Amino acid sequence: METTSFSRLSDEQIASFHDRGVLKVDFDFDMQFLDRLLEHVYPHYDQDFRQHKVPFTRIQDAWKIVDEVRQLAVSKKIATALEQLLGRKALPFQTLNFPVGTTQSPHSDTIHFNTIPTGYMVGVWIALEDIDLENGPLIYYPGSHKMPEYRMQDFDLEPGENNYPQYEQAIRDLIEENKLVPEYGIAKKGEAISWHANLLHGGAPLIDSSRSRHSQVIHFFFEGCEYYTPMISKGEELSYRQPHWIPENTDFVLPENESIAKRAYRWLRNRFRKRNQGNHV
Length: 281
Description:
The chain is an alpha+beta fold and 281 residues long. The chain is 26% helix and 18% strand. The chain has a six-stranded antiparallel sheet. A three-stranded antiparallel sheet has the order 7-6-9, with no helix packed on it.
């Protein structure tokens, strides 16, 4: 799947990640492999998207049904870079594939995924086509990972999915109060953007609704931690996770129970569809 030109991150790249909370890297992936991945994922997107509408849509854990998605998730190049960044073995546990920009409100992944000790989760977003300001790039706020890790209770909100819109508003207020300056994830096909778990990020507005924005996100925990979901944790009663690590080969057995993450995605998808209903054709 992979070509061989990328080997390791430089000291400057590692320092930049820790200072800014985000790093763009060209891992020199095989372009034909990325084309096959996109070709095989595309039929699994829901009918609304394939009829040229633009609702909030994505496929969670497509690695279970499209092997190219799995292969990208267990890329040795990505794993090597992440181990350099955090000093522990990276463990991929979730994939998300997107055909269009999400316009998702800024948030920190620490509301969804966290670890004990804290800070051992990273998201990696890979462009499957060229991304510019017109087709809904990522938006992120460099340096925001150094802010506190905010939980629902920090905004006087009860834990749970029902209060997530209020959490999003509280994050927007924080961005305004702290005068955080956004950057946009402009990327060439094959480039990857990695971010620290606590970096504030989301989806920029989709200016040209006729365009796609194909991409894959991989979420990683790291070895030697405990894992939990802050959004539904109450005080010291943490909602622990038992992640199913994405396997390095095709000889695997899937867990039978539906994950918390998948239920959360279904709720989030329905919410975005309601918000966008009637806004796109």
